[in-house]
């Protein structure tokens, strides 16, 4: 049946690039989770909006599921095709379509890499401020699908804040032009915002108009060593009070061990349980003095044990590497990833609760903590011991995630801060969303994609 469907697609769209080689199926069928065995039907690489619409119409007729696909750097299985789906890769639709100097917007195709967006903005003297370590390989379409966050949310917010307009192909194959770059638009439901974070279950983004902004004033980067967990949010409060923060990220000594083993350079001597990389605006002497004063106050108060202020761009990059290199350094250990958030005000109590929980549930397993603590977002990466089978390891982690989800529920948090639900967290959606909300979400999905062909199995069980 599926062979016939594929033959029909080839006949109807002779120009469409279709891949069916085993190597391509494996390559395009998975994301960075590496948990599922890729098994797509084929890979379609459309080059135009019309081709995307035609593929969606074909999929409706033949009831073939589609997995929209960008850079596949996702960490929740949102772009995995393990059940005979057609992967619709937007890799060929990766161009900048236009820049509007008056509106300060950049219009791009969804397959463009985040870093290419940064470069395009820079050529116009502006910035696109969403940023994170996978910038070189993740795609804008994927960023939109997960409402990606990253390291500058504290200053600029999530992807959602920067999308001025979206063109989307729905599950019917219909093309919607949402918000059209307007700043003010009080004309009913904002369907653009509904698409952002919908993980490819409502529509396929085929064009995005991004807001750009002025580059920030000159900044400085500091690495801090902290003596205990309670100091984290106290130092955050101290720095936020005195400085304009661009980033406030933390990691533990265990994370440091891995990133150093992976080639990063140690910047602070001695053993310290917690570290913070912070970047703040420091355009003049006054701001620089304020930073030193905040640092000294932290030291005097026993909140900061040591620190380094980057003296050059190269040193700033080296300090950032200690934080941004963590994900890559952990990858060989097949980490089980929790990406959770609570309100900033709830972080201290939440940290204590989960510290007790994780120490009890993972007594002999290495657990690496890091993340965007200034946004209330923690990345808890659990590393697979070599002696444990993949299946036993996942089963244990899922048991603990259930308990973690209960704790999050008590603290009013979210089971996914920025990676999305995908396949990995769909069993825990109820810890963050009420039954009524989930029922409404399913209803919305039904409206946009009545035959359920767009990324089925993701987000919902
Ligand atoms: C990061 O912030 O480095 C990633 O989102 C976290 C991860 O790899 O778990
Ligand atoms: Zn992150």
Short recap of the structure:
This protein has 461 residues and is an alpha+beta fold. The protein has helices at 2-12, 22-28, 49-62, 114-123, 140-146, 153-156, 191-195, 229-242, 253-261, 285-300, 313-324, 326-330, 347-361, 390-411, 435-448; strands at residues 17-19, 42-45, 66-69, 86-89, 96-100, 105-108, 163-170, 175-178, 203-211, 219-226, 245-252, 274-281, 306-309, 336-341, 367-372, 377-382.
How many individual domains? 4
- Please provide the count of β strands: 16
Low-pLDDT regions: none
Proportion of residues in extended strands: 15-25%
3D structure, described in words:
This protein has 461 residues and is an alpha+beta fold. It folds into 4 domains: 2-92, Uridine Diphospho-n-acetylenolpyruvylglucosamine Reductase, domain 2 (2-Layer Sandwich); 96-211, Uridine Diphospho-n-acetylenolpyruvylglucosamine Reductase, domain 3 (2-Layer Sandwich); 219-327, Alpha-Beta Plaits; 334-444, Alpha-Beta Plaits (2-Layer Sandwich). It is built from 15 helices and 16 strands. The chain has helices spanning 2-12, 22-28, 49-62, 114-123, 140-146, 153-156, 191-195, 229-242, 253-261, 285-300, 313-324, 326-330, 347-361, 390-411, 435-448, and strands spanning 17-19, 42-45, 66-69, 86-89, 96-100, 105-108, 163-170, 175-178, 203-211, 219-226, 245-252, 274-281, 306-309, 336-341, 367-372, 377-382. The strands form 3 sheets. It has a 7-stranded antiparallel β-sheet with strand order 13-10-12-11-15-16-14, with helices on both faces. A hairpin with a 4-residue loop joins strand 15 (367-372) and strand 16. The radius of gyration is 23 Å and the shape is globular. The model has no long low-confidence stretch (mean pLDDT 97).
């Amino acid at each position: 049946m599926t062979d016939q469907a594929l033959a029909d697609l080839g006949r109807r769209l002779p120009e469409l690039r279709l891949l069916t080689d085993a190597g391509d199926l494996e390559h395009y069928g998975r994301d960075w989770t590496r948990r599922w065995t890729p098994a797509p039907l084929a890979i379609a690489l459309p080059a135009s909006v019309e081709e995307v619409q035609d593929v969606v119409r074909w999929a409706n007729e033949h009831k073939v599921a589609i997995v929209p696909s960008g850079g596949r750097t996702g960490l929740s299985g949102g772009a995995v095709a393990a059940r005979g789906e057609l992967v619709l890769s937007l890799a060929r639709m990766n161009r900048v379509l236009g820049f509007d100097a008056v509106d300060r917007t950049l219009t791009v195709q969804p397959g463009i890499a985040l870093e290419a967006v940064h470069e395009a903005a820079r050529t116009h003297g502006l910035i696109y401020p969403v940023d994170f370590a996978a910038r070189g390989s993740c795609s804008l379409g994927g960023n939109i699908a997960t409402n990606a966050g990253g390291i500058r949310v504290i200053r600029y917010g999530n992807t959602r804040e920067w999308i001025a307009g979206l063109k989307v192909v729905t599950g019917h194959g219909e093309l919607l032009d949402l918000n059209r770059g307007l700043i003010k638009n009080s004309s009913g439901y904002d369907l653009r915002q509904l698409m952002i974070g919908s993980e490819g279950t409502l529509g396929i983004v085929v064009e995005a108009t991004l807001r750009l902004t002025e580059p920030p004033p000159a900044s400085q980067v500091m690495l801090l060593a902290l003596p205990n967990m309670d100091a984290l949010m106290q130092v955050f409060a101290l720095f936020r009070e005195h400085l304009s923060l661009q980033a406030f990220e933390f990691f533990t000594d265990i994370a440091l061990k891995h990133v150093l083993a992976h080639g990063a350079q140690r910047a602070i001597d001695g053993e310290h349980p917690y570290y913070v990389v912070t970047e703040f605006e420091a355009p003049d002497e006054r701001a620089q003095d304020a930073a030193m004063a905040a640092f000294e106050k932290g030291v005097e108060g026993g909140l900061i044990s040591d620190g380094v202020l980057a003296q050059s761009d190269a040193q700033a990059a080296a300090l950032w590497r200690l934080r941004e290199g963590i994900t890559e350094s952990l990858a060989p250990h097949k980490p089980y990833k929790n990406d959770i958030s609570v309100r900033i005000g709830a972080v201290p109590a939440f940290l204590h609760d989960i510290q007790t929980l994780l120490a009890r549930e993972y007594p002999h397993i290495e657990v690496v903590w890091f993340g965007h603590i200034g946004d209330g977002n923690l990345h808890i990466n659990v590393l697979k011991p070599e002696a444990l089978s993949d299946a036993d390891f996942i089963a244990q982690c899922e048991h603990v995630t259930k308990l973690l989800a209960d704790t999050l529920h008590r603290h009013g948090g979210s089971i996914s801060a920025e990676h999305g639900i995908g396949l990995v967290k769909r069993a825990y959606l109820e810890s963050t969303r009420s039954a009524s909300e989930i029922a409404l979400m399913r209803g919305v999905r039904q409206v946009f994609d009545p035959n359920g062909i767009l990324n089925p199995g993701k987000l919902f069980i």
